[in-house]
Amino acid sequence: MSFKPQIWYSDSSDPVMNLAFEECVLDDPRTQLPSLVLYENSEVVVIGKNQNPWLECDPEHLEHSDIPMLRRLSGGGTVYHGYGNLNIGFVVARSGFERRRQLELVSEAITALGVKCEILERGDILVGGRKVSGNAMCYRSQRVLHHITLLVNTDLGALRGALRPAEPEIETHAIASNRMPVANLSESNSSINIDSVRHWIVYTFNNVYSVGEYRSARDLDPACLAERSERHRSWEWKYGRTPRFVAPGYGDTRLSVSGGFVRAVVTRDGTEFALKQPRRYHPKLREVSLAAGRTN
């Protein structure tokens, strides 16, 4: 059995497939540590595990624009993926894990491309004061998935348009994204593209850990990929996992939402009317009748 580092590369641009791919690499006991995961998605908005989709983006607008909204397995803030954005994942041992180590590897690759960058305390990578990279982690008992996005030459106008919230007045303790001005690496060096960035990420990984062996989705359990893909497509995962929140209702009322369902209408004086039949939340769902509920 080989114990060399592994480089997992997806030749798919399907966001659902790639999120499943990344998770299965993390959870497959045959995955060697460390492993590097690389993929590029078509347009998609990906929210953190503990975020509110309506506070981070406008799911209905995205649907009309044929842009899916997905919830990933890790925490952190919302990101826009599209062609020109490289997704980088490191699967490493949890024992002795240091987030800075992977960030410095990416920083070293960026520097090799002739671009000066800095790493902020929370893990963002900046070029000229603008964000080119964000990161998040998913922890298992023995492993950590540390994934990093890197803006290379993506459509920043599309990014900004996709991340406009549907309902900014939502009240919640869910994790909120830290919005910052963004930039592409190609703005600093016009010769930079996805291929050149991928090359230097792999080169630096091999230099730090020793030369890795290439792997693909064909080396993973198809049942794992199918199960994870099905979960990522489901309403229950995308919306039902949203932490409890309160949203504007009709007039002075508020809507109490948990599990993605409106459970009660709250009046101005705080009286709560539980709905006999909870309804899936939607920002336009403001005329929920108090007659549909009863006083708690």
Can you tell me about this structure?
The protein is of the alpha+beta class and 296 residues long. The protein folds into two domains: 6-238, 2-Layer Sandwich (BirA Bifunctional Protein, domain 2); 245-295, no CATH class. The chain contains eight helices and 17 strands. The strands form three sheets. Strands 7-8-9-10-6-2-1-12 form an eight-stranded mixed sheet, sandwiched between helices. It has a six-stranded antiparallel sheet with strand order 11-13-14-15-16-17, with no helix packed on it. The radius of gyration is 21 Å and the shape is globular.
Throw out a few tags for this protein.
single chain, alpha+beta, 296 residues, BirA Bifunctional Protein, domain 2, 26% helix, 8-stranded mixed β-sheet
**What is the CATH H-level superfamily of the largest domain?**
Bira Bifunctional Protein, Domain 2
Oligomeric organization of the protein chains: single chain
Shape: globular
What CATH first level of the largest domain would be assigned?
A: Alpha Beta
* Global structural class: alpha+beta
What is the CATH topology assignment of the largest domain?
Answer: BirA Bifunctional Protein, domain 2
Name of the CATH architecture of the largest domain: 2-Layer Sandwich
Q: Low-confidence parts, pLDDT < 50 over ≥5 residues?
A: none
Q: Helicity level, as a percent range?
A: 25-40%
Radius of gyration: 21 Å
Q: Please work out how many helical segments DSSP would assign.
A: 8
β-sheet strand percentage: 25-35%
Q: Work out the count of structural domains.
A: 2
What does the average pLDDT come to? 94
Spatial gap, N to C terminus = 62 Å
Please count the beta strands (DSSP E, at least 2 residues each). 17
Largest sheet properties: 8 strands, mixed
Strand order of the largest sheet: 7-8-9-10-6-2-1-12
One letter per element, helices H and strands E, the order comes to EHEEHHEEEHEEEEHEHEHHEEEEE
